């Protein structure tokens, strides 16, 4: 059994079989599938890719990876698409900051992370995006942008 599946199973069993601790969120494993920076994409936001009908949201450079990921999802996994929108320089990235199982729902926190102050970055328009796979069933997911710093 993969570590990914084991984490999902642990979360579900722990949340349902241990009412004493059900109010404490359980962290879940997740992993990135692909990312892109230089092809224009959608405005800032997060989307759940439920099936191939959602692929038009994803720019062409990531579409094949998204399609492959959708086809290989386990029954209790979900694919997310995160976009930072257009940025005036390089050095930005989209990141999942936390994935927690809290009772019957899975909370996914994500953020746009900017370059450190004074960092050398490319002087080009960028569009940071990422595909992320999480161990959670579709109806139980809540996407929330983490508290934003100025970016």
Automatic annotation (TrEMBL):
GO terms for biological process: proteolysis. Transmembrane segments: none annotated. The keyword Protease applies. Residues 1-22 form the signal peptide. Residues 79-135 form the PrcB C-terminal domain. GO terms for molecular function: peptidase activity. InterPro entries: PrcB_C_dom. Keywords: Hydrolase, Protease, Signal. It holds the Pfam family PrcB_C. This is Protease complex subunit PrcB family protein. It comes from the Bacteria.
């Amino acid at each position: 059994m993969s570590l990914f599946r084991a984490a999902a199973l642990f979360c579900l069993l722990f949340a349902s079989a241990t009412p004493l601790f059900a109010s404490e969120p359980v962290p879940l494993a997740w992993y990135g599938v692909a990312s892109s920076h230089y092809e224009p994409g959608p405005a800032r936001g997060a989307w759940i890719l439920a099936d191939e009908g959602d692929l038009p949201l994803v720019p062409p450079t990531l579409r094949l990876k998204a399609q492959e990921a959708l086809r290989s999802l386990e029954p209790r996994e979900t694919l997310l698409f995160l976009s930072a929108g257009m940025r005036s320089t390089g050095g930005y990235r989209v990141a999942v900051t936390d994935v927690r199982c809290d009772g019957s729902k899975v909370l996914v926190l994500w953020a746009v992370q900017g370059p450190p102050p004074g960092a050398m970055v490319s002087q080009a328009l960028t569009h940071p995006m990422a595909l992320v796979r999480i161990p959670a069933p579709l109806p139980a997911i809540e996407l929330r942008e983490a508290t934003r710093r100025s970016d």
